[in-house]
Fold:
Amino acid sequence: MSNFLTPNEVIEANINGSITKAKRKILPMFLLSIVAGMFIAFGGSASNVAVHNIQDVGISRTIAGAIFPVGLMMIVFVGGELFTGNCLLSLAALGKKVSWKSTVINLIVVYIGNFFGALMLDTLIFYSGQLNYTNGALGAYTIKVALAKVNIEPITAFVSGILCNMLVCIAILMATAAKDIAGKVLAIFFPIWAFVISGFEHCVANMFYIPMGLFAKLNPTYIARANELYNITEEQVQGLNIGAVFHNLLPVTLGNIVGGAVVISLFYYFITKYDKK
Structure:
């Protein structure tokens, strides 16, 4: 017996899983989405610690990309509702297995829950003192990352969001293909590693990175270190505000929806549809 599913079996299994997600009651859906937001934030936090003192961008992204996938692994293995992955619900909606109404409700509830979960972990990490690492250099790096994200041009953020969620959804489909834990780990690892190395934009990850920068700017030591290490001025830091969060999240979220709910879902819906004829 094969230890992995065929491509058509993967799509069918994903659709069956989507039916379960669409039928889930709001409260457990919301709670699972909070958990998923926290798990993704754990991946972002750990990768920041690992690379905050590395100057070479290629090496830094390679190491961060090797750590960040742990968030999606936790979601897949112990449960969670992740907005970017749930964009694949449109596969089931296209096949009329679930309604578009339930798909939209799921995505809205999960998005809010992911944001709430990420903010909860932001708060805990800030008060844990983690940003003090390397005499506040981690706090400075956190500000740098957040500023870089809020200053991305909307069209760039949108396209980057498309590319990101193509890889995230492929990781989820590949994990579905594997029948054992080791296979699922490898299936998740490489596409997520590729998206982090490539610097693509993930809305749930940014729910961690950007608010974490807002927390970091509360500490004058981190601002001073950001100026010392990266020539970031106090005026630039003041540009890191609530409005800037949504300046990034809106186009990135729309791009993630297109990448997962349109590009990947639409392609595989028609591929499997015509394979069955």
Summary: The CA atoms of residues 76 and 172 lie 8 Å apart. The two ends are 26 Å apart (CA to CA). Residues 242-275 form the longest helix (34 residues). The mean pLDDT is 96.
